[in-house]
Amino acid sequence: MKVLVTGAAGFIGFHVAKRLLERGDTVVGIDVVNDYYDPALKEARLSLLNQAAGGANSAWTFIRADLADADAVSGCFVAHEFDRVIHLAAQAGVRHSLTHPHEYVQSNIVAFVNILEACRHAGTPHLTYASTSSVYGASTRMPFSEHDDADHPLQLYAATKRANELMAHSYSHLFALPTTGLRFFTVYGPWGRPDMAPILFTRAIDEGRPIQVFNHGNHSRDFTYVDDVVEGVVRISDRPAEPARDWDSSRPDPAISNAPFRIYNIGNSAPVRLADFISAIEAELGKRAVKELLPLQPGDVPDTFADVSELAGAVGYAPTTSVADGVAKLVAWYRTYYGR
Length: 340
Description:
two-stranded parallel ribbon; 13 strands; 11 helices; alpha/beta
């Protein structure tokens, strides 16, 4: 197939594009390659995608553009006819959204409208897009289920991703555009974002610098290894959303619809305390962390725990990577990339 992957220079986008190339798909990647974090890391990912394409220019095309630019998005869809669109580009980061809200509106709302419009007019067979576990916000009902309401986000980042889900439904309803949203749960692994805790902690512990441990390390996260996530993304992209035959408008289920619309959790379904995740990093590095224990940050949720039974039932999603194995692979990549 010919697949558009937005955010192809990003962490998950890079891994998804690489997986598609390896299985023989033609991939068009698009990314603005901004400086929210080290652009050199993004350029290194793009270099690997060029290698993964094996020099076959027909298999891999990269477009450097801002998805908030409607003309750029429209031009991409005019130049290429896609069998699938996997939209992973976004302005991420919970804490950054507290101080830079306008960036989230442009990258997560305006850009998504442009993607929806382009898919609508092109008659794209299936749009798969990234949402987040952060949409569950103030909810403490565990494990998080797609069938529960997710309308109390605790920060703007989560609010924009919840808005994406609602926007996608409107396009599925009005224009019969098949859309599937995936709520990611704390993805980590090689080539990960350096602004996220797994890489931040690994570098700081290795260099002997203190790490900030919020909530005294007592909150838990459904840490999910990137290869497991990629397998789920590719499998669900291959299966276009369809209307649910049993959807009841008098008792609407937020995960399904009488339109071709779906929302799935994509996590590990095995929460790990932050303190234990740090211990796994310490064990791999052979060094002890210097910890600065702090209260829970504004906008953070105490715990995340994914119910992934729906994704498992739909495409056989079954994460297999333990935290011990995943951290070992993360640290091995860190040592290679940073020359440690």
